[in-house]
Structures are given as structure tokens and as C-alpha cells.
Design goal:
The chain is an all-alpha fold. It has one domain. Helices cover about 85% and strands about 0% of the residues.
Length: about 130
């Protein structure tokens, strides 16, 4: 991989990490408010049957922060990318077809690109 490719991947990872970092902090700071802002009523009803809404969105925020940490640090990068893809897929399904979901789909394709092109350094990289 050339220096330019390496730098491009690094900046791309930082950009995606910034999105997860921002929304992760919001979800941890105000989990119920963020849940009501971003989640459809049907999805909220399912979540509430499983656990308290605040707890569910706090966990979601922590997962988003873990993805951001993984993308920035490179620690468990493939796992972080896989988690990012799963979270984004869930977000897209929850949002339905709209402009925000289209943006998240573009981010998802970038995450999948990074996931498929990332070479594991050793077996513990998964």
C-alpha cells in the first residue's frame, strides 16, 4: 500500500470515527432524549419490552464510542468495523428510506470497504 493510500484510509477512518464519537457522546449524555429523537415508535416499543429505554441507548452510545476508539486507535480494528457495519445497518433499517438513511448507507459502504480491505496482522485482530 502506498503512502497516499495509507493516508487516505487514515483520514477516512478519522472521519467515520468522528461521526460515531459525536453520536456516541450524545447517546450517553441524554439516552432517552436521543432515543426519542432518532427511533421510530415501533422500534421504541420493542426496545422497552426488552430493557429500560435509557439503559438501551446508553449501551448503544457506549458501542458507538467503542467503534470510534477502534477506528482511531486501530485496536481490534476489524471488530470495530464489523460493529460499525452492524450498528449502521440497524440505524438504516430503523430510519426507513429518507435522506439521513441514504447518508448512513454511504457511510456503511465505506465501512464495508475498510472491513474488506483491512489485512489482519494476526489471528487476534478479529
Amino acid at each position: 500500500m502506498t503512502l497516499r493510500e495509507t493516508q487516505g484510509r487514515w483520514f477516512f477512518r478519522i472521519g467515520i470515527a468522528a461521526v460515531f464519537l459525536y453520536f456516541g457522546f450524545l447517546a450517553v449524555q441524554d439516552p432517552v432524549g436521543q432515543a426519542r429523537l432518532w427511533t421510530r415508535r415501533e422500534t421504541l416499543e420493542i426496545i422497552v419490552t426488552l430493557m429500560p429505554l435509557g439503559m438501551a441507548f446508553t449501551i448503544f452510545g457506549i458501542l458507538e464510542l467503542a467503534v470510534a476508539f477502534s477506528l482511531i486507535s486501530g485496536v481490534f480494528l476489524r471488530t470495530g468495523l464489523l460493529l460499525a457495519a452492524i450498528l449502521l445497518l440497524g440505524i438504516i433499517i430503523n430510519l426507513g428510506f429518507n435522506d439521513i438513511a441514504i447518508r448512513d448507507f454511504a457511510i456503511l459502504t465505506g465501512v464495508i470497504y475498510l472491513l474488506l480491505s483491512e489485512q489482519p496482522k494476526n489471528k487476534s485482530a478479529y
